[in-house]
Amino acid sequence: MCCSTSDVTVAVMYPCFKVSSDYGNTDQYCGIHDPAAVVLCNSTKKWFCNGRGNTSGSHIINHLVRAKCKEVTLHKDSPLGETVLECYNCGNRNVFLLGFIPAKADSVVVLLCRQPCATQSNLKDMNWDPTQWQPLIQDRTFLRWLVKIPSDEEQLRGRQISAVQISRLEELWKENPEATLEDLEKPGMDEEPASVMLRYEDAYMYQNIFGPLVKMEADYDRKLKETQTTQRSRYDGMSASTARPEHLKLMHGDELRIRYQFPDSREPWSGVGHVIKIPDNYSDELCIELKSNAGVPSQHTQDFVVEFVWKSTSFDRMQSALKTLAVDETAVSTYLYHRMLGHELENMVLKCNLPKRNSAPGLPELNHSQVSAVRNVLARPLSLIQGPPGTGKTVTSASIVYHLAKQGLGQVLVCAPSNIAVDQLTEKIHRTGLKVVRICAKSREAIDSPVGFLALHNQIRNMDGAEELKKLQALKDEIGELSSSDEKRYRSLKRNCERELLQNADVICCTCVGAGDPRLARFRFRAVLIDESTQATEPECLIPVVLGCKQLILVGDHCQLGPVVMCKKAANAGLSQSLFERLVVLGIRPIRLQVQYRMHPSLSAFPSNIFYEGSLQNGVTAAERTNLALDFPFPQADKPMFFYATTGQEEISSSGTSYLNR
Amino acid sequence: DQMAVIKGAPKLINCEEDDDFSSEYEKLMAETYQRTVETSKVPQLDIGVPVLHKPTPKKLTFSSMQPLQEEEKNTMNFTLMTKKGNKQQLKAFEVPIDSTLVTNLKNREEAEQAE
Ligand SMILES: [Zn+2]
Ligand SMILES: [Zn+2]
Ligand SMILES: [Zn+2]
């Protein structure tokens, strides 16, 4: 172990102190086992020393206080021999009550409890001096004549356990009394979980690393959201509004519970709904749509309480994807399996029909680097496309998807971590004339989107030939509720229609987490394209991939912000590194889109030089990007730029793993 | 394995967990001190100071790190009276001359002589 107290003049590396079972009397914290310096806790049968180490109390006192133990025994080889500390008179063994009194004129002491034994009146008559009573524990250590305090040197040689570790070890003992300090270092136990690696032996190892990280992030997310309770809410028809809560970070589709506590002793009312409007620049109001308006105390308009309803869905789907990769050999092709785990592998070329025309119908003509991206991707089982801002990533992706769908090898799955990115891509793919279905989370069905008409739940309403379903749907919309037999019929019809629509689609679009939707459970996708993949964590990215992927296209820009991981520990362990990024480190060269159309050349020069090794070319000229109508006093007239400090709030996607640009 | 001299002492590292311990400790001490016991349940005291026949102190086990200090004796022998079952036991221990235990004893002896 490494000793590094500030006044150690020689830095010494000691081999790790091993707690050996040979030492029955070893301090369970620091490893000191000098019989004179350790004490046995009677209830837990563990030994602890009387040294403070790095804490403000000795190890034994730390233990007694934290574990709420009170009785101890001295070691048989200690100067006083095996001694249970107890009151000589009444036998009380609570060391926090015990003390000693000396004889009036002799070097004899006796242990007595402070109350009542040391206060009895006849002590004086027996030549004791009760006025001299002193506790056995003083200044958070046992008296040194009772238990030796290990020397500084001994203490420095022992394990330098911190109060943090002590507290966690004591917590661990509550569940497993056999646990050792080493157990704290196991993944999920320790402050620092096992870090992600570049290469993994197999998918079990991969799961063993990522599983605990996903769990940590989930636990963190739950704690964060469940503490989000806010007062002073109004109820207003089917929606509830509340003043903008300070810490409440909300997304469309989040589930909230609204509660009302009646002033009298009636049962409180509570209802659950989805967020359909979040506070914005114009209004501080938050609206939720309730699932049912039964029993709403609508006569009241004030003093509702709003609470977050935490859902583990996205994390469950990540865990399940990790497991699928490990146990199901059809989850991904053998090639992708080894490539993703970082194994050395011969490059592979896929048979494909390269299109005569590279651009897709309905979309803009592709430039040179976009064309080369499309042609490269089609023949490869795994491609990374790096698209700096404004280089036409979405058009390129949509063109690729078009050609993939035209290969006739099955449906293409298109994902992105954020709903906005999915919607943008969905819209472009729709323009090519392909049949696209966008799957939204049930909680987001009420939310408007420019591609709402492509959403599964809306396509069903306009489906041809589903007359019975339409009738039932109309009835349900009108009355709000169906009889149980009708409801059953309605659900089964709906399921069949959904399946039919999905099966007939050329392309299915959803968020990465959405790819774990039960409605896709039996679908297999040979080709998967993930846009903005550099903003997804690996387990998130894995959800669409493990549906049988043989050809994977990751689009992103690892030079921009990576996935957002809220839990610092998980982030530090590497959960915030994307699969794209790791594959780049493994030596897979991304195909770069090099012509940008968005920025004035003087703006693109900076990112080009700093992040993209000067490779970013301009598809627009300075003249095209100069607005003559605008008379803005730029510091330099020919360089239309200045720095602007912004204090806006970023939003976090529903999976909690990516910021959304709005 | 390595020959190295460590100087210094373990340092208190302040942290939330240590503060928690401190406040728990204070609470525990305060609680036990407030405790009142029905004296009837406690046996009547009958513990006379034993007549000391100067028991030979058990050999002290020094840690191997500390050189045995054989020069002038700067400790004093004391006896702890304990019970094992119903049997009284006398156990010798040493305390440094400058400890309060010794100082207090000396003070009491002086006071006694003055009377
Ligand atoms: Zn204990
Ligand atoms: Zn210790
Ligand atoms: Zn007592």
TrEMBL record, chain A:
One of its GO terms (molecular function) is DNA binding. Pfam families: AAA_11, AAA_12, ResIII, UPF1_1B_dom, UPF1_Zn_bind. Residues 41-69 are annotated as: CC/SHH/C. Gene3D superfamilies: 2.40.30.230, 6.10.140.1240, P-loop containing nucleotide triphosphate hydrolases. The keyword Zinc applies. One of its GO terms (biological process) is nuclear-transcribed mRNA catabolic process, nonsense-mediated decay. Residues 19-176 form the Upf1 domain. It comes from the Eukaryota. Keywords: ATP-binding, Cytoplasm, Helicase, Hydrolase, Metal-binding, Nucleotide-binding, Zinc, Zinc-finger. It comes from Stichopus japonicus. This is Putative regulator of nonsense transcripts 1. InterPro entries: DNA2/NAM7-like, DNA2/NAM7-like_C, DNA2/NAM7_AAA_11, Helicase/UvrB_N, P-loop_NTPase, UPF1_1B_dom, UPF1_CH/ZBD. GO terms for cellular component: cytoplasm. Belongs to the DNA2/NAM7 helicase family. PROSITE patterns: UPF1_CH_RICH (PS51997). Residues 27-59 are annotated as: C3H. The lineage of its organism: Eukaryota, Metazoa, Echinodermata, Eleutherozoa, Echinozoa. It is found in: Cytoplasm. Residues 87-117 are annotated as: C4.
